[in-house]
Amino acid sequence: MSKRVIRDQHGFTLVELLIVVIILAILAAIVVPQFSSPTEQARVSSLDATLGDVRAAIDLYYQQHGHYPSAVAASGGTCTGGTAGAGAADSEAAFLDQLAFYTNAAGQACSLQLSGAFPYGPYLKKRTLSANPLTQSSKLVIVNDGNLVMSGNSSTAGGWKLDNVTGRFIADDHVNKDTGGSFYDTH
Question: What residue spans define the domains of the chain?
């Protein structure tokens, strides 16, 4: 009679280990790209949200005044006890004064409403423009071109650009493209 020796197997075979490693590699190849693009998507979403907020403020200002912010000077008018707008026409200061302060029909700005002397606004909660989340610049370039298909700067990426004739407000960036291949100034 021959004796059979039955051995208890402990551990995994090399083939089983290779199969597990291959499965983990496939899962990693699927999952890792999902975590690499949210940063870009978050910046683009932030850009779109900022553009939407400022464009809404510009449109409301236009409906109440008949001209776009910074098209006229924010200075003038009697602003007793408050901070008067000081921005000249076509300036970033006038743009910010007229959107962040109370204004009258002529576009003159004051930090106080003063019993209805400055009945409109404010349209933005703070008197600063958020930085463009893609370029980290908050600089505002104001033009009077009247071009509805205005593009951003094509040599360097900037902050923001406003056309006082059309009210078009864009990201001043015709250098970089989003993941869909569109320049950021088209958002």
Answer: 45-186
